[in-house]
Every structure is written in structure tokens, then in C-alpha cells.
Amino acid sequence: MTISQRIVESLPFLDSIAEKVQPLVQRAVGKGGVTVRNVLDGSPLQLPLHPALTDVPVGSWTAALLFDGLDAATDSRAMRSAADASLAVGTVSGVAAAATGLSDWRYLTGGSRRMGVAHGLLNAAGLTLSAASVILRATGRRNAGRWAFLIGYSLSGTAAHLGGELSYNYGLRVNRNVFEKPGPDDFTPILKESELPQSGVRRVETDGVGVLLSRNRNGEICAIAATCGHFSGPLEEGERVDDTIICPWHGSRFNLCTGKVINGPAVFPQSRYETRVRDGNIEVRAAAGNVQKKVR
Ligand code: FES
């Protein structure tokens, strides 16, 4: 267990906060509809939006810190203006980053949810102090503004570290398909064609990986990874709608033939398998672009 984990684990009140706040966040994000949810998740861009957006406040605040230091050392009006502008950009972009972060947190459970609360509380305090600093500077209390920002920056930096824990230690927003075996390089028989239903889906194991077989509306046989790339949900237990499958855990929707994400929270496409029929058997082989093949 890391030091951060040990500290967070020793703070049970974080769970009480999560139990009260998480349903509110889920309801608020749900009310936005599918498009808002997809945007917050980053599904249209095929990248988790929160980590990308956090670069803006972190970079802007770091620049503000640097300009504040140069202003203190040189009493330069230009440095002062640059510090104020960077701080304002960081504070505004911090609000957008917070919205996407809350959205990511809405489906966490257990230790990762608790770590998410600690991350969020520290960030909220850091953001509030940065906003206070903007006001203090604008009203002529620059020294107080600098101190408020300095404390806020330290809190946001600690929060950023916990955000890293969430990704690297808890696997938040990591494509779970990457941990699967790649599947066969050469066409391998996995099921008699007669055993694949005309509708629905069928999970078959081959070379240590679960493959989700289906027939599309044109009768073509399709195959994608059976384990959801979001949090490893079992797609074979999901609901099939036309040529798509909806994950039973958090509702991500994938194209059954291409693996493409139709709706989040997943952002990465499902790994895909090429199919053919030989001697009455369905054969599959891993597609060249699959993420498993890129890391081995
Ligand atoms: S595991 Fe979360 S959407 Fe599938």
C-alpha cells in the first residue's frame, strides 16, 4: 500500500461524504442526457477528458507561480499582469476539469471512490483559494492574494498526486482490454457456425481471451473482445440493440463488428477479431490494430 493509500484508508469520513454526494452527482450527470455524458467522458474524442483538461489549470497555475516569483524579485508590471492572467486561466479551466472529474468519479466504488473523494476535496479547496486569490488581487490585496494562491497551489499539487494514484494504482480510465491476452495470430476455429444464434451474442474463449461472437443484420459474423474495456464488465450479459451491445455494468455501448464506442463512459474501442467460416467452423484471429498487440 502506498503512503497516500494508507492516509486515505485511515479517513473513514471520506466514505460518508461519498455516500451522500455520489447519488447527487449520478443524478446530475444523468439529467444531462447521453450527449452531455459522452462529452464529459470524452467518448467522442476517444480519450478520457478529465486527465487532458487538468493539464490546463496545472500548467497555468505553474506559470502563475513562476510569474509571481519574478514579479516579487523584479517588481515588474509585466510579470504581475502575466501572473494574474495565468491565474485566471487556471481558475476558469479548473472548473471544467472539476466537472469532468466528478463525472469520472460517479461510478467508482470502494477504495478508489474514497481516493477520489480525497482528490476532489483537495482540488475543491485549491480551486477555491485560487478564485479567492483572483479576487484579492483585483481588489488591491496582492500579498494576501499571493499567499492564498500559494496554499491553493500546494493543495492542488497534492490532489494531482492522488489523481495519479487513481490512474496508475487503481487503473481508473485505463483500457482494460490491454490486460487481456492478444488472442490467436492465425485463424483458429472456436465454434461451429450452426451453434451461433441468428440474434443475440455468444462468448467463446480462445487462447486465454474471451471473444464475443454475433451476426450483424447482413448475416456477417463479427467478433470483439468480450470484456468491457471500461471496467472489465461481461459484455455477453449485456443487452443487444441492433448491431450494438450495451455493457451491463455502466451502460457503455459498442458496435458489435467494429468495437467502436457508441456511448460512454468507455472511451476506447473494444479489441476486434477477424472472422471466417471454414468447414462449418467459425475461425477468428486478432486484428492487427488491437491494443494488446501494441504492448507486447
Ligand atoms: S464496465 Fe463500465 S461500461 Fe462496461
Search tags:
296 residues, alpha+beta, Rieske Iron-sulfur Protein, 2 domains, six-stranded antiparallel β-sheet, four-stranded antiparallel β-sheet, 8 helices, 10 strands, 16% strand, binds FE2/S2 (inorganic) cluster
Write the layout of secondary structure elements.
Elements lengths: L2 H7 L3 H19 L1 H9 L7 H26 L2 H29 L4 H29 L3 H27 L19 E5 L9 E5 L2 E7 L5 E5 L13 E3 L2 E3 L6 E3 L5 E3 L8 E7 L2 E6 L4 H4 L2
Antiparallel strand pairs: 1-10, 2-3, 3-4, 4-9, 5-6, 6-7, 7-8, 9-10
Helix pairs in contact: 2-6, 4-5, 4-7, 5-6, 6-7
Bound molecules: FE2/S2 (inorganic) cluster.
FE2/S2 (inorganic) cluster (FES) binds next to loops.
Précis, in short:
With 296 residues, this protein is an alpha+beta fold.
Account of the 3D structure:
By secondary structure, the protein is an alpha+beta fold. It has two domains: 3-168, no CATH class; 176-294, Rieske [2Fe-2S] iron-sulphur domain (Rieske Iron-sulfur Protein). It is built from eight helices and ten strands. The strands form two sheets. A six-stranded antiparallel beta sheet has the order 1-10-9-4-3-2, with no helix packed on it. Helix 2 (13-31) crosses helix 6. It is elongated, with a radius of gyration of 24 Å. The mean pLDDT is 93. FE2/S2 (inorganic) cluster is lined by residues 228, 230-231, 233, 247, 249-252, 265-266.
Q: Compute the number of helices.
A: 8
Largest sheet entry: 6 strands, antiparallel
Q: Ligands bound here? A: FE2/S2 (inorganic) cluster
Sketch the topology as an H/E string, one letter per element.
HHHHHHHEEEEEEEEEEH
**Span of the ends, CA to CA:** 28 Å
- Could you tell me the mean pLDDT? 93
- Write down the Rg: 24 Å
Instruction: Outline the low-pLDDT stretches.
Output: none
Number of domains: 2
Report helical residue fraction: 40-55%
The geometry reads as: elongated
By helix and strand content, what is the structural category? alpha+beta
